[in-house]
Write a structure and sequence with these properties.
The chain is an alpha+beta fold. It contains seven helices and six strands, in the order E-E-E-H-E-E-E-H-H-H-H-H-H. It is elongated, with a radius of gyration of 25 Å. 15% of the residues are buried.
Length: 204
């Protein structure tokens, strides 16, 4: 777990044997226990984007949470207004990311039956690529770029796979996709990746 002590009074040291310990330059306290260091640095902050509802931030591990950690002594925030706004914006982004991940999992579960029906008889990467248009909405140009048939060579399959991943990859998608197509593309992308791994291993 990466830690950052730069915003705290703690400093990390190491014994000649390589064992790490932590010293607080303000209190003079020293400990071997990293969890003790982390627990001592929780800060309560007002969320200015949410009617000043309090949330909790730990600069050592860069974590924010709505739930107050148990068995800790909260520090008083010694931050400027600008720093608080910056942390609130970070919290907002984290919540949005958390929401998007939960939404993605829900949609994938919602459309998993359709995907499972499609993938059930696709034993190879070639099968998946040939029948990709039957589950993923593609433009005529995209269909033409894949160009896979039962006679395609391994070289053709690899080229088609790379083109397919560019079409399906989350970072390459347009914003006008339906929720069904977005969910199916996630599922098919993962399936193609696994099929490609098996395909390359069979070549060795």
């Amino acid at each position: 777990m990466p830690i950052d002590l730069s915003k705290t009074d703690w400093q990390q040291y190491e014994t000649p044997e390589g064992k790490k310990y932590y010293h607080n330059k303000t209190s003079g306290y020293t400990t071997w226990n990293l969890e003790e260091v982390i627990s001592s640095e929780w800060i309560e902050l007002p969320d200015t984007n949410n009617e000043n509802r309090p949330y909790y931030y730990n600069p050592v591990v860069s974590v924010t949470t709505w739930d107050c950690p148990e068995n800790i002594d909260l520090k008083k925030a010694k931050l400027t207004g600008r720093q608080i706004i910056s942390l609130n914006n970070l919290r907002t982004r984290e919540l949005e990311k958390e929401y998007q991940l939960k939404k993605q999992a829900y949609l994938e579960e919602k459309y998993s039956a359709k995907f499972n029906s499609w993938i059930s008889n696709k034993t190879t990467l070639k099968d998946c690529l040939i029948h990709l248009p039957s589950i993923i909405t593609l433009t005529d140009q995209q269909k033409e770029s894949l160009q896979i048939t039962s006679e395609s060579t391994n070289v053709d399959i690899k080229k088609s796979y790379k083109r397919a991943t560019l079409i399906l990859h989350p970072d390459k998608r347009t914003s006008d996709l339906s929720e069904e197509q977005a969910a199916l593309r996630n599922l098919v992308f993962d399936a193609l990746t696994k099929k490609y791994t098996a395909f390359t291993q069979s070549e060795e």
